[in-house]
Design goal:
Rossmann fold, 8 helices, binds S-adenosylmethionine, single chain, alpha/beta, 7-stranded mixed sheet
């Protein structure tokens, strides 16, 4: 199957809204838990067309980096001083221990989660934080999830890897010397907004996804904030 590496840029370009659970409300919740300081080094992994990166630019005077596997997405960033790298979350082109904050929003479904955790922990400073807003496999491991995700992959041509459960993710993070400081359900996005409705309609039309295909049957969206332990 030909991977639709640039799938997001093609859709996000049209709407320029965040493509993660809970939209910008979720990013704001993360930021309310993490006091940003002048000079912070921040990395957005799977930054897409840079909406979160630009949001950070408006809220603190920090050094911002964005990484995405899609070159086309990076080219579409209306960049306000962030450094952009075309690379995979599973093999990050940074030295160890350089970031105060690493943010990951709606990327893990496309990656090997354990590899990403190990990489983000490596590049975090001791005491640095990792903020994740993403989808996890429901704890009761609903039947048919693999078939369902394979079907979504087939429709969208986007690589989809069945994610870990929350428990498994917590263990994986702990094994990379990170401890979880905060965890909550991702807030619901304001679904009444016309742009979100239009986006949902567009995706269903583009990928011929029927209303009965319901990700929330299998996955739950959570915000996790973890800190790299100072040894
Ligand atoms: C659903 S979008 C989320 C984009 C952005 N984080 C946001 O919240 O709007 C997923 C993004 O992850 C990127 N991506 C997928 N697999 C990746 C990988 N292995 N490494 C880095 N980025 C990846 C895609 O190109 C896409 O931009």
């Amino acid at each position: 199957m030909k991977w639709g590496k640039n799938y997001i840029s093609d859709t996000q370009r049209l709407f320029r809204i965040p493509l993660h659970p809970g939209s910008l409300e979720a990013t704001k919740l993360i930021m309310s838990r993490i006091p940003l300081r002048e000079g912070f080094t921040i990395c957005d992994i799977g930054c897409g067309v840079g909406i979160t990166l630009n949001f950070f630019a408006n809220h603190c005077n920090c050094q911002r980096f964005g990484v995405d596997i899609s070159f086309k997405s990076l080219r579409r960033i209306r960049n306000h001083g962030a450094r952009l790298l075309n690379a995979s979350a599973e093999n990050l082109p940074f030295r160890s221990g350089v970031f105060d904050l690493i943010i990951i929003e709606s990327v893990l479904l496309h990656c090997n989660m354990k590899s990403v955790f190990s990489e983000v922990s490596r590049i975090a400073k001791p005491g640095g934080q990792i903020a994740i807003n993403d989808s996890f496999l429901k704890q009761n491991r609903p039947k048919g999830v693999r078939e369902f995700l394979a079907h979504v992959q087939e429709l969208t041509r986007v690589p989809i890897i069945p994610p870990l459960t929350l428990d498994e993710s917590s263990h994986a993070l702990a094994s990379t010397h990170c401890e979880i400081e905060f965890m909550t359900d991702t807030p619901q996005a304001d679904s009444s907004s016309s742009i979100h409705r239009a986006y949902g309609k567009f995706i269903r039309w583009k990928y011929r996804i029927k209303a009965s295909h319901n990700l929330s049957q299998y996955l739950e969206n959570k915000i996790i904030i973890a800190r790299k332990i100072i040894e």
